[in-house]
Specification:
The chain is α/β, with parallel strands linked by helices. Bound molecules: pseudouridine-5'-monophosphate and manganese (II) ion (MN).
């Protein structure tokens, strides 16, 4: 039930670097029509850095690894008509032949099965503020899937200290790329120190390879801060996040609907500035992911 786009299948077969991209950010995380621009921009950033992009989604019950432009257009245009699927939801969509956008958890699980080792996204899910029981399935999949996820940390609307603690509990290797701190999505810094910083992507590729091939371990979260020029200072975005969280509590928005609701509220309240920041950080992640995939493909093979 996994259908590889011809270009992606050929690349995987030939050892050409491939970068997976998720579809929930397109269908649920960003407003139309910016979402289509972002989907195309992420693919272009991957190509510009020497890798083949593979946007992953479930279309009419089939897992697509690599969407063509018509596929990206349908995903962006129909948006929330694609259900939001975590890894656990996939079987239902496949069996019922429905359309679903894949979150980080579903995309990482599929990428691992397809043999794609690098995946770029904006920000992973994590532990929600206030409700310590709402922990994204992204973290559990990251713990076991042999995939490097390049992101600007976890989304700032989450409880970042608890999210970092949970990553540690689960045994996810968290590495800063050009940072000593967990980035805070819209802002470069969170004040939360990371144990590892690796700026040289050839070294990071070696670390990933050792982790997967020698140790048989799982995911690597590569934390790549938003470019300074696109950053929204924490003191600007925090009150906006607080207001969005209060609104969600008032309307009793919980579960899968919560993250999309908060992102939409933040986009409205910042008149699109959050969307511009999200776009810039995701494109930067795609570029670094492609460079990491190129470095992995260049490792000597036994
Ligand atoms: N990153 C973004 N925008 C998004 C998401 C990530 O820049 O919309 C999505 C991802 O798909 C992530 C999901 O897996 O939000 C987390 O949702 P939840 O908290 O319900 O697990
Ligand atoms: Mn959740």
């Amino acid at each position: 039930m996994i259908r590889l786009a011809p270009e992606v299948g050929d690349a995987l077969h030939a050892g050409v670097p491939v970068v997976a991209l998720e579809s929930t950010i397109v269908a649920h995380g960003l407003p139309w029509p910016d979402n289509l621009d972002v989907a195309r921009e992420l693919e272009a950033a991957v190509r510009a850095h020497g890798a083949v992009p593979a946007t992953i989604a479930v279309v009419r019950g089939e897992i697509r690894v690599g969407l063509d432009d018509a596929g990206l257009d349908e995903l962006a245009r129909r948006g929330a008509e694609f259900r939001k699927a975590g890894a656990a939801d996939l079987a239902v969509h496949l069996a019922r032949s429905t359309d679903a956008a894949t979150t980080v958890s579903a995309t990482a699980a599929i990428a691992a099965r397809a043999g794609i080792r690098v995946f770029a996204t904006g920000g992973i899910g994590g532990v929600h503020r206030g409700d310590a029981a709402d922990v994204s399935h992204d973290l559990a999949v990251l713990a076991r899937a042999p995939v490097a996820v390049v992101s600007a940390g976890a989304k700032a609307l989450l409880d970042l200290p608890r999210t970092l603690e949970t990553l540690e509990t689960l045994g996810v290797l968290v590495v800063g790329h050009e940072t000593d701190e967990l980035p805070a999505f819209y802002s470069r810094r969170s004040g939360l120190a990371l144990d590892h910083r690796i700026d040289d992507l050839a070294v990071l590729a070696r670390v990933c390879d050792v982790r997967w091939r020698e140790l048989g371990q799982g995911g690597v979260l590569v934390c790549n801060p938003i470019p300074a020029a696109a950053e929204i200072p924490a003191e600007t975005i925090e009150p906006v996040i607080a207001a969005a969280l209060a609104d969600a509590a008032l309307r009793a928005v919980t579960g899968k609907a919560l993250t999309p609701f908060l992102l939409a509220r933040i986009a409205e309240a910042t008149a699109g500035a959050s969307v511009r920041a999200n776009r810039a950080l995701a494109a930067h992640d795609a570029a670094v992911a492609a460079r990491l995939a190129v470095a992995l493909a260049a490792l000597p093979r036994a």
